Amino acid sequence: MANPLRFAARALTGTTYAYLGYQAWRTPGGRVEAAGSTLAAIRQVAPLPEDDELLVRANGAVQAVAGSALTLGVLPRLSGLALIGSLVPTTVAGHAFWEAPDAAARTQQTTQFLKNMAMIGGLVYVVLDGKR
């Protein structure tokens, strides 16, 4: 039987990505506009489709699938890598505290940016550990 603490840790981490990814896929809303400048910058060095909404939805789908897989212990290293690859641009696009118009917004975005960095750190541990 799998370690119940590992299962709980995967469930607490994976379900968050599964839920938030599903929401981004289903209703991308303001995420599309928030991602616009980051996607434009990436297009300067890498070929990406021009449809920002499609990219936001695809990113959400990656998070939903990889988060579900992580929760279930299916290919945890690959799931963790997929989530890291998805979360880095999400963090840069969605929590660009350096562009915030005022101190209150900068503080809020800094907090969210650091939270995402902690989440990435947890995923790095999943990738390095890789146990079910």
Describe the structure.
This protein has helices at 4-26, 30-43, 52-72, 76-94, 103-129. With 132 residues, it is mainly alpha-helical. It has one domain (4-129). Helix 2 (30-43) crosses helix 3, helix 2 crosses helix 4 (76-94) and helix 4 (76-94) packs antiparallel against helix 5. The chain is globular.
Itemize the secondary structure elements and their pairings.
Elements: H1 4-26, H2 30-43, H3 52-72, H4 76-94, H5 103-129
Give a quick precis of the structure.
Helices cover 79% and strands 0% of the residues.
Number of domains: 1
The average pLDDT score comes to 93
Helix content: over 70%
Task: Count every beta strand, where a strand is a DSSP E run of 2 or more residues.
Answer: 0
Membrane topology: Multi-pass membrane protein
Pfam families: DoxX (PF07681)
Protein name: DoxX family protein
Subcellular location: Membrane
